[in-house]
User: What shape does this take?
Amino acid sequence: MISFKLLLLRILKRTHLIDRFNFSIKKELNGKIIKVPFINGAGLTNYVLKSDWMDLLIQSLVKEQDGCFVDVGVNIGQTLLRVKTNLPEIEYLGFEPNSTCVSYCQQLLRMNNFKNCTIQNCALSSQVQNLILEKSLMTDVRASVVSALRPGFFTEYEKVLALDYQSFYLDKQIAFVKIDVEGSEFEVLSGMRNAIEKHRPIIACEVLDSHNNDSLEFTQQKANQVVALINSMDYAIIRLITNKSNIISYERIETILIKQWTKESGELNDYLFFPKYKEANVTNTLDKIISPLRNAILG
Assistant: This one.
């Protein structure tokens, strides 16, 4: 049943009245009460956020690692909220090129008194450079600096600064990396390579299927670059099969095969990259996550 608050928020969103008011609403996430700011229409994504498989990875794989949580592609703080409601003491280092999203997240940090957090208003890439962030909404979760990913799709453009991670944070110990960058995975990983090889973190990375048939070859080439780079660092790849809230299975793969996007693609576009010597730890953890769901289905 949809709560009255959520119903009201959706009506305000649909009528664009939500854009005219700034306010905050409390909600529970992972057993913690947080405040969700609504600023110039942004905030509903955080208000409807529920615990899912990423929380389980944070509670298990991240908790036992030393170092900071690196969040590449912060948007309006969805992963930030998961990290800080599960592991409030861990250091959080986020990167987000969209200036509107960063402004929102700064208010989110202040409102919830989250400590040990840094959010850099920049993209990560293989080198320091200026890029164009393409988007259609102020806080568009699909926004990308890769124009060939969805050619002709976006309506707004923002010039953004890109940094290579290792030139600034090479010596910072990394526990875990989350990458959600809409097509620039290879560039991000290239700019993190030295840091990854030094600290050997586990990486959760989204690699999207092709937007349409015209961009299929380009998207596959980008995926091939990611796989080659991962292999060169003596890392392995697991594809997660999810159903929005749970990991229902996983498979060890050697290549990432891209197909044209469908509604089901979101359940097959999430991957774990990890040092091969950590494979037993990763698979045992995934088995523990999946086991209760499997038992519920069988029982």
